[in-house]
Amino acid sequence: MRSKRIQPIAKHAEQLQQQAVQIFVAAQQAVVDAQLQLEQLIGYRSEYNSNRVSSGLGAMQLKDYQLFLNKLNQSIEQARTNIQNKKQVCEQQKLNWLKTRSRSKALDAVIVKYQMQEAQIEARIEQKEQDEFSSRIKR
């Protein structure tokens, strides 16, 4: 029975597909988390800007404010770069998942094909046995 021999391979392919989908979902979540972090940084910068405008600053405070704002802007740019990197990883994981899913489905199709062939062979054997039995009865 070829279908039974290939079933462990198909089961393993299904497990690989399940692992790939979990990794893909985790990559998607990492993108969402990175986007939330970026939004928080942008919100913090906006809030910080509005607080500074309402109060007068001395020369040293203004310098410190500008340094802090520059660091915050750098963090925002790093967060944007991080998002792009995570999106690339996510796309790679999606392609990997699609590849494993395709392989799993192909193996499932092969099993179904083998099972149909095996059923046809069994039906022919059974028909042959019935024909032989009925020919014996007629004698």
Automatic annotation (TrEMBL):
Similarity remark: Belongs to the FliJ family.
Pfam entry (one): FliJ
Keyword line: Bacterial flagellum biogenesis, Bacterial flagellum protein export, Cell membrane, Cell projection, Chemotaxis, Cilium, Coiled coil, Flagellum, Membrane, Protein transport, Transport
Annotated organism of origin: endosymbiont of Galathealinum brachiosum
PANTHER family: FLAGELLAR FLIJ PROTEIN
Compartments, record wording: Cell membrane
GO cellular component entries: bacterial-type flagellum; plasma membrane
Membrane association type: Peripheral membrane protein
Primary location recorded for the protein, binned into one broad class: membrane
Coiled coil: 62-131
InterPro entries: Flag_assembly_chemotaxis_eff, Flagell_FliJ, FliJ
Protein name in the entry: Flagellar FliJ protein
GO biological process, one term: bacterial-type flagellum organization
